[in-house]
Hints:
This protein is an all-alpha fold and 121 residues long. The protein has helices at residues 7-75, 81-115. The chain starts with 6 loop residues before the first helix and ends in a 6-residue tail after the last helix.
Amino acid sequence: MEPLFEGGRNVANLGAARARYEEAVGTYRIRVLTAFQEVESALNDLRALANQAEAQERAVVASRRALDLSQQQYAHGSIAFLDVLDSERTLLSNERISAQLLGQRMETTVQLIKALGGAWR
Length: 121
């Protein structure tokens, strides 16, 4: 048997416990939805960066071929050395962009691993 005056307190404690439970469930749901959103965002970013990297690699190959051609033309006296330097500058610029894209892909991969719950030690 419960004393008459403690019955109200027990009902209030039960209500408070239920409220804490509902709050914890709500917080959990928000965290799960946020995690799903982060995973989806990272996957989309990786896909876009992979497409950019592929296109950039084609640009590097094309600029490397252009440099080879300009070096051959310079060797035969068809063009000035400034044209060779311009081709080298274009190649270096494309290679720099490729390196930056690789860095972005690595950062995005780390974000994906974090979003999937990966722990770093």
